[in-house]
Specification:
GO terms for molecular function: metalloexopeptidase activity; zinc ion binding. InterPro entries: JAB_dom_prok (IPR028090), JAMM/MPN+_dom (IPR000555), Metalloprotease_DSAMP (IPR053551), MPN (IPR037518), VirAsm_ModProt (IPR051929). Keywords: Hydrolase, Metal-binding, Metalloprotease, Protease, Zinc. It holds the Pfam family Prok-JAB. This is M67 family metallopeptidase. By secondary structure, this protein is of the alpha/beta class. It has one domain: Cytidine Deaminase, domain 2 (3-Layer(aba) Sandwich), CATH 3.40.140. It is built from 3 helices and 8 strands. An 8-stranded mixed beta sheet has the order 7-6-5-4-2-3-1-8. The longest helix is centred in the N-terminal third of the chain and has 13 residues. The two termini are 17 Å apart.
Length: 136
C-alpha cells in the first residue's frame, strides 16, 4: 500500500499538468516499508529522456543529489513517480525494463480523463499493483 499526503498527491498532479505533453518524473520521500510506505514529500527531477513525450529518464546526477537531500532531511526514499500524459496508469514495457529498485513503489499519474495516480512495487521480476490512499 502507498499512502500519500494530500499535498504530495496534489503536487504530482500539478507537476503533471505543468509538463503538458511531456512526462514528468521525480522521487517519492517519506517512510519506507516492505509492504506499506507513506509519502510526505515529492522531489521533481528533470526528465532527461530523448523523447520526453513517451519516455522518462531521470538525470542521474540530479537523482543522486535529490536522494542525498532526502536522506539529509531524515526521510527515506519511498519510490519514484512519473506521468503518462495520454496513457494509462499501468507501467509500460519500458517502465519495467528500466525499474531498478526492488521493493520500492513506482507511481504513475495519468491524464486520460480525470487525473489518477496508480502505483506498483517492483519485485525484481515484474510489477505488483498496490493500493493507493490519500490522506486528507
Amino acid at each position: 500500500m502507498l499512502t500519500l499526503t494530500r499535498e504530495a498527491y496534489d503536487e504530482i498532479v500539478y507537476q503533471g499538468y505543468g509538463g503538458g505533453s511531456e512526462e514528468i518524473c521525480g522521487v517519492l520521500a517519506g517512510d519506507y516499508g516492505d509492504e506499506a510506505s507513506h509519502v510526505a514529500d515529492v522531489y521533481p527531477v528533470e526528465n532527461a529522456a530523448d523523447t520526453p513525450q513517451i519516455r522518462y529518464a531521470m538525470d542521474p546526477e540530479e537523482q543522486l543529489a535529490v536522494i542525498d537531500e532526502i536522506e539529509d532531511a531524515g526521510s527515506a526514499v519511498v519510490g519514484f513517480y512519473h506521468s503518462h500524459p495520454a496513457g494509462p496508469t499501468h507501467p509500460s514495457e519500458t517502465d519495467a525494463e528500466r525499474a531498478t529498485w526492488p521493493g520500492y513503489s513506482y507511481a504513475i499519474c495519468a491524464f486520460d480523463g480525470y487525473p489518477f495516480l496508480g502505483s506498483w512495487r517492483w519485485r525484481g521480476d515484474g510489477f505488483e499493483g498496490e493500493r493507493v490512499a490519500v490522506e486528507g
